[in-house]
Amino acid sequence: MWRWHFYAGLVFTPFLLILAVTGGMYLFKPQIEERLYHDLYHVQAQSQSVSPSAQVQAVKEKYPGADVLTYKPSDRSTRSSEVGISLKDHTYTIFVNPHNGHIIGKLDDSSRLMNQIEELYTLSVFSPRAQDEATIHLDQYTGAVLADYRYGNYGFMGKLIALGITLHKGTQFGFMNQLMGLIICIGIAGIAISGALLWWKRKPAKNIGAPKGPEGNAMRIVTCIIVVFGILFPLVGLSLVIVWLLDFFVIKQIPALKRFLNA
Question: Which of 4, 41, 131, 158 is the most exposed place for a label (fewest CB within 10 A)?
Answer without folding.
Answer: 158
